[in-house]
Amino acid sequence: MIKEWKNIEQKKLAPVYLIIGVEDYIINQTKEKLLHAALKDEELEFNYANFDLEDTPIEAVIEEAETLPFFGEKRLVIASNPVFLTSEKAKGKLEHRTEKLEQYLNEPVDYSILCFVVHAEKLDERKKLTKLLKKQAVVIEAKRPSEAELLKWIQTEAEQNGFQMEQTAIKRLAELTSGNLTTAMNELSKLMLYQFESKLISVQDVETLVVRSLEQNIFLLIDKIIALDTEGALRVYYDLLKQKEEPIKIIALVASQFRLMNQLRILEQSGTGAQQAAGILKVHPFRAKMAAKQARGFRKEELEFALFHLAETDYELKTGFGEKTQKLEWFLFKLEDFRKTKKGLKFGPFLTNKKHHRVVMFSLIT
């Protein structure tokens, strides 16, 4: 949990806050806690302001913060997207007189709470203003939690609301929400509402109520492939088609997962763990862990076979060859046949097209 939240809840408020990160749940919860601690409901209209710094100059934000509160003791000013604190380029032509912010940070007023929200992994630490802001502000990191941290978040939230939750249910909720804290908390709220009287959440409740994301359905489809359950894999595929998902998108996601499995297998052979590999490949650690586990269900040549034929399928889809809804079906049948018979790699006549050959081989290795 976020240690700074305790001080906010106890109304021990700082004049300046800085929220850095991409985890929406932490960002939104922090803003809500600041609102609840700083202002009464009847004060919101006069003493609360929310600015987007892509549209509003920083000097207007500072002017708002320096304005005395009206019929209240505090004023809360939230300013999002301060691109001048990052290495990103501003989208528009708006200019910010950042010297005004520098002056304010050196002498912030005691009747306002100024909160900056940076929806990015990090700030540009080379900038003088960044260093000053981090020195003067209470910094709250809205970073993606690790797997262990996510499980703790779920358990703590359930317990604070008076619920008991089986460990298997906690782990399954984390899996079905792909390690996303915001999604997990939204689904947990639904589960708590469902079991409001019993106050007990089981793994069956999670399986019944939690909506599988497209990514999770792809995980499930590949689990079926690993188990040589082509019929089960096809059921998942047909369900996705009923949900109006495009075949080309489904195949692209399947290919992306097989490519990740192949990359993780290569890194694992060089002694790189899944957590470290996630950083190298720039994917969510939870996804890397799941993919590494799935990769162990395939032999090296099976992964290569799958990647090669997925590239072939992708090429055919993009060139309008054949019925698009049947492409994944044929791929599943080919892969099942290959895995059952342990045949060598077979490269069909399509390789006579040299351009196609280059496209397929590039897709296989990248």
Helix content: 55-70%
How many helices? The count is 18
Query: For the record, what is the CATH homologous superfamily label of the largest domain?
Result: P-loop containing nucleotide triphosphate hydrolases
Mean pLDDT score: 88
Report the end-to-end length measured between terminal Cα atoms. Answer: 38 Å
Q: How many strand elements?
A: 7
Tally of discrete structural domains: 3
| Computed CA radius of gyration, to the nearest angstrom | 26 Å
The CATH topology label of the largest domain is Rossmann fold
Ranges where pLDDT stays below 50 over 5 or more residues in a row are 344-366
Largest β-sheet summary: 5 strands, parallel
Q: Judging from the principal axes of the Cα atoms, what is the shape?
A: elongated
Beta-strand portion reads 5-15%
EC number: 2.7.7.7
Family: Belongs to the DNA polymerase HolA subunit family.
Catalytic activity: DNA(n) + a 2'-deoxyribonucleoside 5'-triphosphate = DNA(n+1) + diphosphate
Protein name: DNA polymerase III subunit delta
Notable characteristics:
366 residues, alpha/beta, Rossmann fold, Helicase, Ruva Protein, domain 3, Zinc Finger, Delta Prime, domain 3, 3 domains, five-stranded parallel sheet, two-stranded parallel sheet, 18 helices, transferase
How does the SSE layout of this entry go?
Blueprint: H1 4-9, E1 16-21, H2 24-38, H3 44-47, E2 48-52, H4 58-66, E3 75-80, H5 98-106, E4 112-118, H6 128-136, E5 138-142, H7 147-160, E6 164-165, H8 167-176, H9 181-194, E7 200-201, H10 203-209, H11 214-226, H12 230-242, H13 247-269, H14 274-281, H15 285-295, H16 300-318, H17 327-341, H18 354-365
Parallel strand pairs: 1-4, 1-5, 2-3, 3-4, 6-7
Helix pairs in contact: 5-6, 7-8, 7-9, 8-10, 11-12, 11-13, 12-17, 13-15, 13-16, 14-15, 16-17, 16-18
